[in-house]
Amino acid sequence: MRQKATRPTRALAAALAIPAAWLALAGAAQERRSLEPIVKEQLSADEHAVASQGRVNDISDETRDLLLQYRQYLSEARSLEEYGRRLAVQVESQAAEIEFVQSQLLEIETTGREVLPLIDKMLDALDRFVELDLPFQIAERRRRIASLKAAMDRADVTISEKYRRIIEAYQIETEYGRTLEAYQAELGEGAESRTVRFLRLGRVALMYQTLDGEETGYWDAHQKAWVMDNSYRAAVKHGFAVADKVLAPDLLTVPIPAPREGRS
After folding, report:
1. What is the mean pLDDT of the chain?
2. Which of 9, 14, 39, 140 could be joined to 5 by an S-S link, Cβ 3.0–4.6 Å?
3. Helix 159-176 with 138-152: angle, nearest 10 deg
């Protein structure tokens, strides 16, 4: 049978257990003191590792930004290179265009020197022709000639415009030769002036009749004078009706000057 421990024995065991516990606590404290530098060193290493990782992250971000910036600059450089190439082509084209325009200007200057005397000759010929032609619409035709002469002396009128006006005047004069026209105007000058109605048959004949129909006459190209001849009264009235489109076109009796022998 197990015998129960006596009270003194339990007290001795408890007394012996106290130093053992104290020794264990003292050993743990000593162990903590010995581990504390290691822990501090590890903590310091961890802090350095965290700081190093932060710097690595910052460098990585900076590197990524620099890479993106480099790619952007590279794209812009390629774009500028292409733009410069296109500008070079345009400059070359513009240089060729300038050379062409300069050559055209030289040709225009040469053409101007040649065309202006021709225009002057055409205008003089037209002026003489109007004065020698049948005296129909003479005031209007003389005003046209005077306007052309004034335009020839104006620097703001281009050579092409001057030439166009001369050609237009020639076309108007040409049109007179194939048209029938009736119009009212003054016959004579000064006190002898009177209002009559004229009948022009192309450039074949120019006739007149007073408004009351009592006097009829025609222009004698040989005498360069008006001749009264009432025998053409009915023919002139008929011509007025045709010109006014009251009657259909018809044959008209008009005075035709006899041809003259040419001078040798």
Report:
1. 82
2. 9
3. 160
Residue 10 in tokens: 């339990």
Residue 253 contacts by C-beta under 8 Å, 6 or more apart in sequence?
232, 235
pTM of the predicted model, to two decimals? 0.57
Is residue 11 over pLDDT 70? no
d(CA 227, CA 207) in angstroms, rounded, equals: 9
Instruction: Please classify residue 152 by burial: count the beta carbons closer than 10 Å to its beta carbon, then call 0-12 exposed, 13-18 middle and 19+ buried.
Output: middle
Which residue, 229, 195, 189, is CA-closest to 210? 195
Specify the amino acid at residue 6: T
* Element housing 90 (H / E): helix 7-132
Give the residue extent of every domain in the chain: 180-256
Burial class (CB in 10 A: 0-12, 13-18, 19+), 115: middle
Q: Tell me how far apart the terminal alpha carbons of the chain are, to the nearest angstrom.
A: 190
Residue 176 in tokens: 């007179």
Residues 6 or more apart whose Cβ sits within 8 Å of residue 133:
203
Assess contact for 123 and 166: CB atoms under 8 A. yes
Q: By three-state DSSP, how is residue 263 classified?
A: coil
Angstrom CA distances, 41 to 35, 37, 51, stand at: 10, 6, 15
Q: Is the pLDDT of residue 26 over 90?
A: no
